[in-house]
Specification:
It contains ten helices and no strands. It is mainly alpha-helical and 179 residues long. Helix 9 (136-150) runs antiparallel to helix 10.
Length: 179
């Protein structure tokens, strides 16, 4: 089960570059947004993430870890996916804030779940899941860059939603399995 959470982290790191590195280019190239506005996509994503992380403990107390982690992420992925379908900048930018807010606790909760389920020592478990997770940074940028060139940036934005949706579903099953 710990390996599965490591794989979730790997997919998270492999795909997060889509929004951090490629989303501004996507807005200028595919949505025809002015460059000065396109840069806001990263700011908006980070605002959502920071707000969610600031209120994470309150959210978890109110809704539970499973809701704040994978279920929020599923909702965020669907909202972003639908906003991309619109290809409307004024719908996409607020959706990015929502996506950042609803997905930001997925990684910390995944790590916490791995630690809860591990039979190894805390340092060893953290080392293993971090190593597996960060390996996503090795192959992720290459795959994302290749698919951006061959298929398109809009495809990558849809892919981001699909990856987050998929790892959230996997996480729900892993969190059920431990009980």
């Amino acid at each position: 089960i710990v390996l599965s959470f490591g794989i979730i982290n790997m997919m998270f790191f492999a795909s997060i570059g889509i929004i951090i590195q490629w989303s501004s280019l996507w807005l200028t190239r595919d949505i025809m947004a002015p460059i000065f506005i396109a840069g806001f996509i990263i700011v908006f994503f980070n605002i959502g993430e920071i707000l969610s992380n600031v209120y994470a403990s309150k959210l978890i107390k109110k809704f539970d870890e499973k809701v704040v982690g994978p279920y929020f992420s599923i909702v965020g992925s669907i909202i972003l996916f639908l906003s991309i379908l619109s290809m409307n900048l004024y719908i996409i930018l607020p959706s990015i804030i929502i996506f950042g807010f609803l997905t930001s606790n997925l990684l910390p909760i995944s790590i916490r779940e791995a630690l809860k389920n591990s039979k190894e020592s805390l340092p060893k478990t953290i080392s293993h899941i971090s190593s597996i997770g960060f390996s996503g940074l090795i192959f992720g940028p290459a795959i994302v860059g290749y698919s951006a060139e061959k298929i398109g940036l809009t495809f990558n934005m849809y892919l981001l939603c699909i990856v987050f949706f998929t790892i959230s579903i996997l996480m729900i099953f892993l969190m059920k399995e431990k009980k």
